[in-house]
Specification:
7 strands; single chain; about 50% strand; alpha+beta; 3 helices; about 140 residues; seven-stranded antiparallel sheet
Amino acid sequence: MAIPMALGPFMFHSLRFGFNGVGRDLSTRWASIQTVGGLNRLQWTGGDEDTVLIEGVLFPEEFGGLSSLEGIRGAAQSGLVLPLITLGGNVYGMHVVEMVSEDQSFHDRLGRPRKDVFRIGLKRYAGGGFSLISVVQTLFG
């Protein structure tokens, strides 16, 4: 992982709570306007969704990280809006957690997973303003 990333107060680290990849999808709408004697014109009518999928693997027995994943699950259940930023300076805006899925394997004798493959689905929150103050309050508040 070249540039660490944070989802609100949850930092992705190279060992403890790392990610393998980040996918991003943006969809917008265009209306086709009929014209005489030529091709139809297109008019942009707005955006639909901006989604992010974060995938990673945890090895809780060796490096930990399950508490961060549980914290993100709690944020999803509470309906929190969180900033998604990289420490390299990219600000992706405010997001909500729509999905957290896990594939746990290699359980120890107490039933704890030794390997946990996770996916976190985020959707861009467009319900309010985005400000640096809201990022700082979420991270350090």
